[in-house]
Amino acid sequence: MGELEKFKDQVYICDRCGECVEICPVYEATKGKSYSAEGAIMIARAILSKRLSYTDPVIERIYACATCKYCEEICPPKIRLVDIYYAMRKDSVKTGIGPIGIYRTYLDCLKKKHNIYGESEESRARKIIEALNIPASGDTIYFTGCMSSYDPGTLEIGLATAKILRETGVEFAMLGGKEWCCGWIPLVAGDKELLNEMAHHNVEALEKAGAKEVITSCSMCYGTIKLVYPEIVGNLPFKLSHTSMYFSKLLDEGKLKPKRGVKKKVTLHDGCYLGRYGGTYEPPRNVIKSIPEIQLIEMKRNKKNARCCGGAIFPAYPEFALKIGQSVLKDAIDGGAEVVVGVCPLCHKCISMAAEKGHSHVSSYDLSMLVAEAMGLAYR
Ligand code: SF4
Ligand code: SF4
Fold first, then answer.
1. For ligand 1, what atom is nearest to the CA of residue 19?
2. How far apart are CA 262 and CA 293, in angstroms?
3. Does 359 score more than 90 pLDDT?
4. Any residues with Cβ below 6 Å from ligand 2, and which?
5. How far is the CA of 36 from the centre of ligand 2 (A)?
6. Is residue 78 in contact with ligand 1, taking CB distance under 6 Å?
7. What is the pLDDT of residues 312-334, one digit of tens each?
8. Which ligand is nearest to the CA of 20?
9. Position 358 confidence tier, pLDDT thresholds 50, 70, 90
10. CATH classification for the domain delimited by 256-374, as one of 1.20.58, 2.40.128, 2.60.98, 3.40.50
11. In 239-317, where does DSSP find H-type helix?
12. Nearest ligand, CA 188
């Protein structure tokens, strides 16, 4: 039985009310109904009834979903729409037709080097580990993620996070080359076997290193470890926190003390994997509000109704992602913000790119960068 067959009942519940169309960021970017969740349901029905197979135009559409989950939030019968996309992706991979384009390269890099950049395992987060002389084992482990370990555009998030933890007296470790990609890329690409391998490896490596608490600065790492790993490895043998949650806890304990004022109007971009997936909305707001002189402005669409930044489709559909990022930026500008604060390196990358291309005066910060500045820590 194919993966999609498991969702047959869900696929036929849809009454084509259309609620999920206009709100879909990919529909907004493409104006193509076949790119929305309702379109995916129609594709799924045609595949189940053998009127359609995984041809190139089908692959093009089923991989374009940004997995933001907003359609699930508003769908009246609460259909598990993202799981339906994932089921079709897995089946398309099994037939040898999926995944789409760039994911093949990423999966190849992951199989050989366990990171999406194809860089050596030993160089994972090396700059941060060497700069701060961070041990490889301990109770509290900062799971750095591929982007904050390797990507020159987002490495500063890793450095800012490590410096904040060090400054606040947290004794923490980083796995370096023993950490692998969290598995989010194989998850969205539809490669179930590789995802399982990544999950087993990371949980074993974290356990061996003595982890009782694991901190991630990437929303995708957070969402994947929190929600997907338990389906593969059972209950997590450690507590998991996103940096926004951990910083908020340090604030409550009086250990994190933003001392420098940041005289800016900022707005928070609720990352989909921390917000809609993880249900975490207040910790990043608490942290921002603790910074002297800062003004927090809420986006018109926030929390469970927040816009997606388009990051999840940035690798395969950069033009769609750019348009989606520009919509987030427009909301920020309309609200009067000067800075968009994110909680994920991919959001930071997409919103920075949208600001750069649109010559916008609004800048993008990750929460860790903002906190580091407020604590007077250099991270660039
Ligand atoms: S909102 Fe749900 S029921 Fe309505 S068209 Fe979309 S998938 Fe179907
Ligand atoms: S998860 Fe987001 S991008 Fe995907 S179909 Fe639903 S609203 Fe559109």
1. 1
2. 6
3. no
4. 24-26, 36-37, 65-71, 81-82, 308
5. 6
6. no
7. 999 899 999 999 999 999 999 99
8. 1
9. confident
10. 3.40.50
11. 243-252, 282-289
12. 2
